[in-house]
Design goal:
- By secondary structure, this protein is α+β, with helices and mostly antiparallel strands.
- The strands form two sheets. The protein has a seven-stranded antiparallel beta sheet.
- The chain has four helices and nine strands, in the order E-H-E-H-E-E-E-E-E-H-E-E-H.
- It has a single domain, classed as Small protein B (Small Protein B, Chain: A, Beta Barrel), CATH 2.40.280.10.
- It is 33% helix and 36% strand.
- It starts with 7 loop residues before the first strand and ends with a helix.
């Protein structure tokens, strides 16, 4: 029997998050959007790099997600930087609230994608890295990059 899983279409990835944060736990969440925001997302006009989420009044709110106004809309356009509510179960919200209460932990969106007709966000708990941690991670990845480059060069010959 074949399962009909909805296809995922990636809109944007927060590459800066993987550099600036040590990522621990990822989860898929829904987001509350207006019609013109969805249309702008389909065009890929979104900036996720400086966004973060916080737990307020029993809800998770996403801040600094910039979705550009839809160009074809004459009126009723959305505010590009408005806070947006994320959809999770109460139990999950309480768990994430407990995780963010620990020192240095925050909620970081990693990517936005379409799953079937729905817009989803991959939200992760992460701890901010210090500058020396970033350099250390980069130094560890460099030998792998050199090997990968050499293998690609060898495959082309």
């Amino acid at each position: 029997m074949t399962e009909n899983k909805p296809k995922e279409k990636n809109v944007v990835t927060n590459r800066k998050a993987f550099r600036d944060y040590e990522i621990f736990e990822k989860r898929e969440v829904g987001i509350e959007l207006r019609g013109t925001e969805v249309k702008s997302l389909r065009e890929g006009k979104v900036n996720i790099s400086d966004s973060y989420a916080a737990v307020e009044h029993g809800e998770i709110i996403l801040y600094n997600l910039h979705i550009s106004p839809y160009t074809m809309s004459a009126r009723d356009n959305h505010d590009p930087n408005r806070p947006r509510r994320l959809f999770l179960h109460k139990r999950e919200i309480r768990r994430l609230f407990g995780a963010t209460e620990e020192k240095g932990f925050t909620l970081v969106p990693l990517r936005i994608y379409f799953k079937g007709p729905y817009v989803k966000i991959e939200l992760a708990t992460g701890r901010g890295r210090k500058m020396y941690d970033k350099r250390e991670v980069k130094a560890k990845k460099e030998p792998d990059r050199v090997i990968e480059r050499a293998m690609r060069r060898k495959a082309r010959q």
